[in-house]
Amino acid sequence: MSIGLLWRQACGQELNANVIINDVQVQTQERQVIQQLREAIANFINTTRWTNDNYKSHERIKCNFLITLTANTDVASGRYTANVQVQSSRPVYGTNYETILLTFFDRNFNFEFFPSQPLIFTENVFSTNLTAMLAYYAYAILALDADSFAPQGGNPHIDRLLNILNNSQQAGAAGWNNTDSRNRYFIAENLNNPQLNGYREALYLYHRKGLDYFADNPELARKNIAEAIRKINQANQLRPNAVLINAFFDSKAEELMHIFSRAEAPLRKEIGTILTRLDPTNASRYQVLLK
What we know:
Elements: E1 5-9, E2 15-22, H1 31-47, E3 61-69, E4 79-80, E5 82-91, E6 98-106, E7 111-112, H2 129-149, H3 155-170, H4 185-192, H5 197-207, H6 218-238, H7 243-260, H8 265-278, H9 283-286
Parallel strand pairs: 2-3
Antiparallel strand pairs: 1-2, 3-5, 4-7, 5-6
């Protein structure tokens, strides 16, 4: 029986991840191994204790890992060629709304997997490319989430990101160097780059001082979100087309339209002009704000 799209939701420590594997391109009789892979990844993400912080069940960060196996995957030999879309979200205070914090597409999510070998992560030692990549994205999710609740709140997680990056580079693993302008190397680089401090400051303004205020004081919330967009604009001038700035707008374009469509004309047009320049992919959407 072909499993097609596999999914699993499990309880965990800091993260509450849905793991989806799309195997439709793979020609194999060993579908049960792919199911074991999905279960191993979900258990690894959701049961590893990534920090020393205590998370209540409802505080766990919701995230999705959509792994698409390509036709080059050879299940029999344990070699998997894939890409992955990683997404995480955060609740907005006083509402039932979840705002997306991260949307990132990694085209070089290649690894080996053997059901007999458990997935184990040791922070200071490179074990396998699969565990390194999963741990890397776990800390990226934690870093962005923490930045949205406190200024520079993600710093401890960024240190761990850099450690995983350095260990993986030293091990010669694929996909960890700056050979592709949109690969995972640049998540850590962007978060650690002083030129992009404004972007990180904006995450706090946008979420904690913006969205979390919206239910009680939409005018103040919109004002703070506008300031966040100005900070991102300044960061983009220092570091054009940064991966995380692009990822921000991949996640937020529709949300921004709703936020500023009811703003006063001067603010609406100002932010519409900035967004059109920063996010040309969605420029046609933002034209509504300029009217």
